[in-house]
User: Fold this.
Amino acid sequence: MRRSSTRKTGPANPASSMNSSATDIFRSASSKAIIKELERIDHLFNLYANRSSGMIDPEGIEALCSDLEVDHTDVRILMLAWKMKAEKQGYFTLDEWRRGLKALRADTISKLKKALPELEKEVRRPPNFVDFYSYAFRYCLTEEKQKSIDIESICQLLDLVLGSQFHPQVDMLIDYLKTQKDYKVINMDQWMGFLRFCNEISFPDLSNYDPDLAWPLILDNFVEWMIAKQS
Amino acid sequence: MAKTVDLEKGWEEMKKGMAKLKATLEGQSDSPFDSEESVKLYTTVFNLCTQNRKSDHTEYAAELYKRYRSAINEYINETKETWHIFSERTSERWSNHNIMVRWLSKFFSYLDRYYVVKQSLPNLAEAGKACFHDLIEQEREGGQIDRDLVRSVVSMFRDVGVSGIELYENDFEVYMLENTSVYYARKALDHILVDSCPDYMLMVEQCLKTEKERVSHYLCPSTEPKLLEKTQHELLFVHANQLLEKESSGLSRLLEDGQVCISISVITNGLESVSTIFREHVTSIGQALVRNAADEASHKKVESKDIVGFPEQVFLRKVIDLHDKYLSYVNGCFMNNLIFQKALDEAFEVFCNKQIAGVSSAEIFATFCDRILKKDGGSEKLTDEAIEETLDKIVKLIVHLHEKDLFAEFCRKKLSRRLLSDRSVNEEHEMSLLSKLKQQFGGQFTSKMEGMVEDLILGREKQVEFGNYLRDNPHENRGTDMSVTVLTTGFWPTYKSSELNVPTELIRCIEVFSRFYTSNTRNRKLTWMFQFGYCNLIGRFKPKPIELQLSTHQAATLLLFNTSERLSFSEIMSQLNLPSEEVKKPLHSLSCSNYKVLIKEPDNKAISSSDVFEFNSMFTDKMRRIKIPLPHTEEKKKVTVDVDRSRPFAIDAAVVRIMKSRKALGYQQLLMECVEQLNRIFKPDVRLIKKRIEDLIHRDYLERDEDDVSMFRYKA
Assistant:
């Protein structure tokens, strides 16, 4: 069979068939829209930002939350921070704000509010969720060289991040964390272990938990504690 | 159409046919045996069996079966002589025999198919061979059989087989082995309940010997291992537990009474069970020893809780003897078999790690060594060779200790005590023990202790140098004879330095030595440990002067009385500049014990802070020179705590070492290698290792692999 000659398939590329001015119009039209969007985003930023620091600070965030009609301890704010890749807890910089809102295609408060459910769905998708989960931990590290978080805060964080999805596990885990005395802080490795535990181990029977595997020791202790409680 | 055939008539037909076949085979027949004849014979059998369907036709069938067997037997008997004589035609004979069997089976195949299956009798072909086996069984029961005959038959099997040994193995051997099993199973049952263990073992030995013989006489050599295995299995393995635990004659008793018979060496398959019993036996004896020692320790009135009493020493002596005894069994009866060596080690591991009267096994072992190496080791006054031998044996037992690092620490503390108070029997013995330990456990185990012993040796040289120095510099000589031992920090256990207010007589000497030492060495700092020194003072008592051998602290206390006759406790304490505990000890030894060099008010046995002391000028003793001992307490708890604290670091070091060389390793593997490395020092707790790994992750030495959570990576 003769080899068919290479042909361009599909509709002709408008950019190549039209003259350059059309491209410019096209580009400028879209770029004008983009510029407008950016302007609105920045404008929104300035509504909440602190004049002197040039960032949105906790006060500003609280104001934002009330406008969004979301409690400032709501997990969706954390999700927003994740989308923004915000670094410092309680603060949003302009870059972070731009990043987040652009990705959400939200340039007004109402659009932002409408984007929240979609954001939540996005976050809960498994590959994103692991990333979000570890982000949540890092976000709480406020001091410079800090690597662990105290038990009290961890319990709150657990509830916030996993409470809706793994309610029974989280309840028991929090109960245990508060009563045990071996650990006063939790590190990232243990934190990630909690998520793996919730995902993999059947609850409350814990039948497939094997302490000989590389689970963090705190989970070995937790399982022991649970088994003792159940008997 | 079935004709009613009478059995006898039918049988006549069969006999005629068989005879014809025989004749054909012998080459004696004129007319060859043909298919027509064979069909006729088949039909005859068929008819015999199937007629009289109403009545029980199995009657005929049973009869036919019997007659078939006897026909074969007859044939064998008839032709036995022929076989024997015409040996060159033996293979032909065998194939003829086979053909005969085959044909006959064809005739009787109806029987085979229906009757035999119904009655589960061995099928005809097997029945033919069973006749041979009967012969063997006959022999087993003591009957005489014609061995040569059987041998030639067997070799026929081998030669005739199309693919070599297959015919032999498949047709003959398989059935023979089965037969063997059945036979010996029966025999075992007969004897196991009746015989005592030694008798039974003798029987076993006998049977094994006979079977071996049988093989060499007329069976194929490849059969031997299979035959022996079957025999042993039925006789020994199946009844192993019964054998071993037989009351009053089982293996346990035998071991106790020292009558382990050599036949055990014959067993190759029952070893596992025997070794288990062996291990349990040794363990139970060992644990009984532990219990005895514990009982004795609790009953004995011990003066001070911290001093390990003598029952522990007796205990270890017994353990050594136990080890010797059972090691000789392993080497002798069990011929150094690894399984038994392992069983012995496991047994010892169990009870060598038990606490006795609250004293850890590590300390017990250390105290034992201490006594051996001390000058006045209580009742143990041993010759040099005896000491060496005992040290050898105890080191072998130390291998079983789990907490070797704890043992090493106790050893080190006791060594220090021995060396500093000059109570070591002999430096050579000390070094000998250290080199034995080094051989077993590596240099790291003993490096500090070796350093300690060397310090003393060097110290003596230094002393000579110091003497020369004083001679060369007479103005430095302050009149008081002083010798100093310099200890290298790090080798020796850490001691708090004494803050004693040094008596003036001593101060000058100390300054002289310091000058000498710094002139001789570089970058060294001397810290004086007065709690370990000793002095000779001359006490000018009214009756007579007496030389007192005292510790420095005691001497310093007494020297205070040179300036005042009476001193209160608080005055003494402030002048000595020592903590109250350190003041009470010398005062107690000088005023409340055998030698009352000081008079105490009030005159009771305890020192209290309100006491007042006075120099006892009337003190005297029949000796001109007395030594006033100062009891020392062993800080046992501190040793255990120190060692416990050092273990996490040892684990950290091991983990880092392993990960550094492997770069990435799975959790279980890491755990395994860690335990292996650390076992030389102590038995690590798995949870502690896990904890240390997590700590190392936290400190960024390791990280968990992103994709595989059970894998760790080394972070450079």
